[in-house]
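User: Okay, second chain of the day. Same drill as before: sequence in, structure tokens out.
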Amino acid sequence: MRLLFVVKQSALNRGMNTGIENLAWSLARRVDEVIILSGGRNPSVTTYTYPNNVHYYFSGGEGDPGDHITLYNDIRCSYHIDAVIGWSRNIGPLLQQEHDQNQRPLFIANEGALTRSTNPFLKALSIAYRQRRLPSRYVFFQKKFGASVDSFVAISKAVAGNFSRNYAVDPDQIHVIPRGVDTNLFEPSGKRTQGAPDFRIIYSGNISFGKGVVDVAKAIATLRTPITFVLCGTDRGALESIRKIFDESPQHTVDYKGPLSTTCLKNELQNSDVFAFCSHSEGLGKSLLEAMSVGLPAVTSDIPTFKELIVHRENGLMATTGDRYSIAGALDQLINDRSLRESCGENARKTIINGFSREREAEKWLEILMHNKPPAIGA
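Assistant: Same drill. Structure tokens below.
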């Protein structure tokens, strides 16, 4: 079996890797070949290692879907491709190139992001669809590209429901397969079990307001225990606000690490006490899965996606989204109750091993690829 993954920008030319590329590398160990078609250019140096049967093709540019078409046609002339996998916006334009529907590969849209209902354009489309004045977004997608995607995979139930509503796709056509974590890499180390002079609360991901990092910073500012707030990821506009908050709370410290390699991120997680991820909206939360795999207790917002992962006071604590005092209360419980902290961390690790490992993700994908090819929607 030969698979083609289509991505906007590869991990090889990014500071931090992507979930879909982790999936590609994982499936490469179970199929004949994996080809990754990416925007950008092939970097001369990379810190990542991947299986020998993974082959990269870079189309240049910013990775817009239209940039991939010429190179996609070249790949299709050189390889027999069994399945094309990627976000619908990335694989959609490639469907136009497949004029013989009997010979084309299986197309699988791997949806990982929630469509925000606050977007006025999406609201207008939704209203228009309900009033039958315009076709649904998915029908428009079908007409534009002349063929339907064969199958949809969502990384969480929340994403599946959102995608079904916004694209008018039958829920039975959508498979839910959560992102998998390399549990052998992201494993507990015991570094912090004996205590440390500072209490370290860590976050990894984009440093943006929508991720709730400023809410966490405001919560930390209300705590008496001195805290080091470790931030791993690219600043998307919220770092300055966080630093201003901590300037007014000198007992606390912010330690901005920037984007990290996978190994360095693992080390930072292993050297921390609590993971705080109070995002306002999330498809699944790969960084939360990685922290839980390391055995960190987490404080999260109470958004629907996180309710698929967190059982309150069993493998983490949930706080009211956007409420600094609720977040502070949850953090304070973990700071002052070591037994709760340790039990939540141990159960968090079990949660990932039992339901969110990379092996389990790959097995479910192989089942779809080999046995569960559904009929094209509308056929």
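The longest strand covers residues 2-9.

User: Thanks, on to the next one.
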